[in-house]
Known about the structure:
The complex is a heterodimer of chains A (228) and B (72).
Chain A: H1 3-22, E1 34-37, E2 40-43, E3 51-56, H2 63-81, E4 84-90, H3 94-108, E5 116-118, H4 123-127, E6 142-147, E7 153-159, H5 167-183, E8 197-199, H6 205-213, E9 217-220, E10 223-226
Parallel strand pairs in A: 3-4, 4-5
Antiparallel strand pairs in A: 1-2, 3-6, 6-7, 8-10, 9-10
Helix pairs in contact in A: 2-5
Chain B: H1 12-19, H2 27-34, H3 38-50, E1 54-57, E2 60-63, H4 65-71
Antiparallel strand pairs in B: 1-2
Helix pairs in contact in B: 2-3
Amino acid sequence: MSSQETHKIQENNTSEATTTASLPRLGMAAPLFEAVTTHGKIRLDDFRGGWVVLFSHPADFTPVCTTEFLAFAAIAPELRKRNVELLGLSIDSTSSHIAWVRNIKDKFGIDIPFPIIADSNKDVATLYGMVSPGESKTETSRCVFVIDPNGIVRAMIYYPLTTGRNTDEIIRLIDALQTTDKHAVATPANWKPGDKVIVPPPATMEDVEARLKAGFECTDWYFCKKAI
Amino acid sequence: MACISAQGELSESARSILTALENPSTPEDVASRTALPLFRVRAGLREMAEAELVTLSNSLYTPTDRGRSLLH
């Protein structure tokens, strides 16, 4: 093997390792970036103190993405009530984003109220692992990263190019995360605000006895719910 | 945010932010006075600081003479 080939392999390995190391993980700090958006240059850190839903779409002027943007615009006021801002992204230029946003206003009568990152050089997409080469090497998948007020990645959703996301689920997810933070509880399958929540399982025998006397709705020692 | 156009005029949001800076203020103060999202205020103030329209001291932003002159 020539030294040139060795260097190339090392370069590839380094590149792969770097990409892997930088991919977001739940419970870890969201990778910081500064990016050009339809609302000017924005840093992720500008959102500190509030929640962010960073989401990517494959491309401007495509039908599924247009339905998603209409749906994201529709939930923006509900998210704002929850101290959540939306931040879109695709591997398109600012001009393309602006033209598409204007087209959505013209054809559907809907304003897109959130900024959209023009990630033409894939900097942010690479940082967050938004490109799934098995699907497309030139488009971002339908990714959602929920980042909390401390800049921690709290949830991630990946949908394929063919399948539009369910924005009701994104609101439900935010409600569940904020409820968990506020009450130190977990939420069961298909939980909605108003439903009972899961009391975290006890870790010691002493806790088990205390749990059973605490007045929770317990099916068994490890499975207790309560209203909040 | 592009606080200044190619013609040297303030953008609408930059004008709102500068107008809200009557007294030295934090980004949070400005956001509550303008009803702009906090992230936009932070990004806008940073851009205006780079353009020397505002200065930052002790976490408070103040318009510069140039910033004030563009308001009128």
